[in-house]
Amino acid sequence: xxxxxxxxxxxxxxxxxxxxxxxxxxxxxxxxxxxxxxxxxxxxxxxxxxxxxxxxxxxxxxxxxxxxxxxxxxxxxxxxxxxxxxxxxxxxxxxxxxxxxxxxxxxxxxxxxxxxxxxxxxxxxxxxxxxxxxxxxxxxxxxxxxxxxxxxxxxxxxxxxxxxxxxxxxxxxxxxxxxxxxxxxxxxxxxxxxxxxxxxxxxxxxxxxxxxxxxxxxxxxxxxxxxxxxxxxxxxxxxxxxxxxxxxxxxxxxxxxxxxxxxxxxxxxxxxxxxxxxxxxxxxxxxxxxxxxxxxxxxxxxxxxxxxxxxxxxxxxxxxxxxxxxxxxxxxxxxxxxxxxxxxxxxxxxxxxx
Length: 354
Ligand code: DAH
Prior knowledge:
Elements: H1 3-20, H2 24-35, H3 40-45, H4 56-92, H5 111-125, E1 129-130, E2 136-138, H6 139-142, E3 162-164, E4 177-182, H7 188-196, E5 201-210, E6 222-232, H8 237-252, E7 258-265, E8 268-277, E9 294-303, H9 305-311, E10 319-326, H10 327-335, H11 348-351
Parallel strand pairs: 1-5
Antiparallel strand pairs: 2-4, 3-4, 5-6, 6-10, 7-8, 8-9, 9-10
Helix pairs in contact: 1-2, 1-4, 2-4, 5-10, 7-9
């Protein structure tokens, strides 16, 4: 077979292979087989050297033509395969642009934070300053300087989370409890503020507190309180009543009434619990207020002189009142939330209502 015949059959064979190639990588190996440096065309052309000189240009011309035809065919096939490939991929991960999008709701403040800010704002309007204290607190501030006797039940390790000393390699529940605890109320901040600041003191203290309670509809082991403290010359129980009555009306509505029931707290004397009239029955008694007509919302009192003793304030010159309220409880009362746990579970269907 002459070289020219060989070139023609090589061309036919290559064109068939190009047409048969089903993927871009198959096509590439066809190209290497026929046109590569060690490919068929190169091999055939090695014979040119043995031809008579006058035949060589003819064979050269034909071989150039064959190369050009094959390159063009490869390019064409490549384009076709690339297009098919793209079409296949597009239909494989097709996006239906007519499907409804995923709704992205705007963020908002959690109800607990909304209420805490609202209470703080009311007191800012009365000239109070915001103060804060540590959640990991010393026994001294949480209990002792707040006039709790050493035997007070709140000090028990079943009621309060204590940091234990594990330095002797003891197990978590075996190490002796230390003077360090998770504060059980925001009242220790009263002591911390009075340590640094001489009267007049008017502070409002929002913060998180901890108690060893099992979560149930009316208890959470971690919740938020807002503490208030006013110390000045001539402060009376009347100032306390006037202030808290005003704040309750701001929080719950002008038509609500308050009442002060005698109570006991170690750090105030006298002490009271404050109730606000039921917003559902306006005081006549219903299921919401358990037929009493009143809802308990906070504890308060006149600062006990013993507390002043710990912070070097002279009770002959200054008197003060203090109060503390639970933020979750206020939220629950204001919005008739039956279970405090709903406030911390993070269920958006619930939280979006507020
Ligand atoms: N600390 C009290 C509690 O956690 C609340 C409280 C009562 C705070 C009377 C006060 C107060 O400042 O005067 O239950």
